[in-house]
Amino acid sequence: MMIFWSAEKKTKGLICWCLFDWANSAFPTIIITFVFAAYFTQGVAVNEIKGTSQWGYAMGLSGVAIAICGPIFGKIADRTQKRKPWVAIFTLIAIIGAFLLWWVKPDEQFALRALICVAIANFAFEMSMVFYNSMLPGLAPIQQVGRWSGWGWGLGYAGGLFCLVIVLFGFVQAETPWLGLEKNAAEHLRAAGPIAALWMAVFAVPLFLFTPDSEDKRLSSRTTVPSGLRTVLLSLRILREHKEIVWFLAARMFYTDGLNTLFAFGGIYAAGTFSMTLEEVIIFGIAMNCFAGLGAFMFAWVDDKRGSRFTIVYSVLALIIFGTAILVVQSKTMFLVFALLLAIFIGPAQSASRSMMARLAPADLRGEFFGLYALSGKATAFLGPAIVGLVTDVFQSQRIGMATIIGLFAIGIILLFKVPDQR
Known about the structure:
Blueprint: H1 2-24, H2 26-33, H3 35-44, H4 48-80, H5 84-99, H6 111-134, H7 136-139, H8 145-172, H9 187-190, H10 192-203, H11 205-210, H12 221-230, H13 232-238, H14 243-273, H15 278-306, H16 308-328, H17 332-343, H18 346-360, H19 366-378, H20 383-395, H21 398-402, H22 404-416
Helix pairs in contact: 1-8, 1-10, 2-3, 2-8, 2-10, 2-14, 3-4, 3-14, 4-6, 4-12, 4-14, 4-19, 4-20, 5-6, 5-10, 6-19, 8-15, 8-18, 14-18, 14-19, 14-20, 14-22, 15-16, 15-17, 15-18, 16-17, 16-18, 16-22
């Protein structure tokens, strides 16, 4: 009876862990990729080209901060074995940053305020993921890590989808937006920030109530913080004993940077190059989330059966093929077709990366290695958006700027072949 109760409690904890993906998905979907990003470039910045460049630089600076701080805080979490408090702190910062976007009015004088809020919130969001991701190996049996990671990503895309639907029908398309917001003052678009903040605040609660955390080693912050600062370089030395992790992190550094850049500029590219209205961009985002969530669910079993490397390699290869097609086509219809096909492989590439690190990381160094995992995803994060912003600015073409993403995917997939099969 006790075994059954323990198993039931553990499953409940895993379900609530997955629900956090549903909670935090609103931020990247509503703020970083679709609604607010498009509003910033079209309604706040001087023009779309300048707005694209500014957005790229802000995301780049945020990425640098994440790359520096990820391993430090990961080591601190390993020393205390407590991760939920850090998830709570950084989630709260992201919530506050998103909420403050309400005061970004459609005027270029509010551009700097918007970029600062978005950069800080994005930093906090990504830092929360360091601790959230490192919880998975302690919750799920190792042979089921792939499916739980995939289900979490799939649920996240579903959450982003529902939030986009609310924004579209309740605020953007509605003749009279909910809460009596004024369209002339862009309040129906500025509401994207508070909506994302509220979504995170409400749906993050089950994680903190029902998902177990590791036992606290009760080391004081006076001990753990200096230790975290001192041992980051030691982490890099430890990697020499884990060559397979080195190759994996190197590969992920590039293909994840391509994905992050794609998220940061996907809605902007759709709006600028194909003259899609904000309503069309949101509908496009809804469709993308549907296909990405479907892909994450479908490939969850593939991850456990064929291995994480297999799933990542074929997903990134598909991203290269369909990403190239998106940059070549001139028709809006063909752009939508290839974009939706591309979306199927976004979720598997992300979820299989998380499960691969969960399988590779030593049990006593999970937080630290997931910090390095965040580092690999952000060490060059400033580079992708900055290059897109710079190339777009130089050539005055979003299409040419976005083409740099394919190069990042290509480098990533080449390095992936150095990673041994972990099945």
